Amino acid sequence: MNFFHLILRNMLHRKFLSLLTILSVTATVAFVLLLSLSKASVEQGAQKGYGPFDVVVGAQGSQTQLVLNTFYHIGAPVGNIPGRIMDMVLEDSGVEKAYAITTGDNYNGFPIVGVNPEYFLTRYGDQKLQEGSLYSETGEVVVGAYVARMLGLRAGDTFTGAHGLVEGAHHADMDDEGHGESGEHHDDHESFIYTVKGILPVLNTPDDRAVFTTLDYAWAVHGQVPGEREITAILIKPASLLGAQGLKTKLEGMPQVQAVYTSKAVADVVNLVDQGAGIIEVVTMLCVILAAISILLSLIAAVNERTKDVGLLRLLGKSKTYVLMTLVGEGILVTAAGLVLGLLAGHAASYVLKDALFSYAGIQITPFQWSADHIMIAAATLAIGALASLGPALRLYRMDSLSLFKA
């Protein structure tokens, strides 16, 4: 009987216990891998989320909320600022490109964003749409790839929007006279028809889950006259770092307006996520310890069952090293089986969860991406399996063959 056949026979002899050990390792590896993929996706998504727009201008309030709503389409806008701020920004020599946006409405829970269509060329370069063309007239829209896929939209389709950034919030904050809580003009969402002009390519950013239209859509829907027109935020691509600082200083001197370095606000969010990930890592370590204990208990049970068999092998001339390696090999083989299944399960879980995470936070997991983390996970898993196997194996290694047989 060769070495590997003996290990396999021993595993099959204790099918149930071997299966439980394998499943324990599988669950741990899958959890660690899913955490690794999620963390990498958060970092990549955070970096890609704002593109070349290093400064964002909006109403005073939370900087984090301003950036998350503007670039990641999460949460509600901080507020609005006067449209004349955009004229001031465009006149500044430190600005290479700037785009005003208007938000506040949704279609089936996906935000409707008003912005100059040139934004896509500045942000993504000259990419070809999946179908159709960019909008040019009020009421025309282009739809993010994820929105189009989830809602089955095609070029030529029409729909009506709703007030607010949550599906079902239509007119929820209107009083009996058709004014909002702050007394703005009557909204006319139900009679304002949007026409889909095109479907954006897959951009792998939060823009995949938004609907884009002309800047003036909000003014048309909400009945704002020229003197009262407001915008939600301004995305700025500075000509230089010095120009960005000068513009930021000038705008912050204005009442009810803030200018934010996008990278700093995003870094604050990532740091907050990392703090939460620290708690998850503690849970992960507990899972790793439990998996190691599972391997250890499985092999201790094997030692107690197999003492006479090992004694017979020794009397037949097998060396102590051979006995040691059979037990360690069994532990490594069980661990390796759990490792392979865990890697497959982790990638499968990330594939299942990717749409939910992208819909909620605009972070897109790449389910089948391989990285250096895979090598680290595999090496650490096999090392833990080998170490957990070594204790029970050494116990038999130290006993002489006659004592083993009498046992």
UniProtKB/TrEMBL annotation:
Keywords: Cell membrane, Membrane, Transmembrane, Transmembrane helix. InterPro entries: ABC-4/HrtB_transporter, ABC3_permease_C. It is a multi-pass membrane protein. It comes from the Bacteria. The keyword Membrane applies. The chain crosses the membrane at residues 282-302, 322-345, 375-397. Coiled coil: none annotated. Residues 283-399 form the ABC3 transporter permease C-terminal domain. It is found in: Cell membrane. Part of the ABC transporter complex hrt involved in hemin import. Responsible for the translocation of the substrate across the membrane. The complex is composed of two ATP-binding proteins (HrtA), two transmembrane proteins (HrtB) and a solute-binding protein. Belongs to the ABC-4 integral membrane protein family. HrtB subfamily. This is Putative hemin transport system permease protein HrtB. The lineage of its organism: Bacteria, Bacillati, Bacillota, Bacilli, Bacillales.
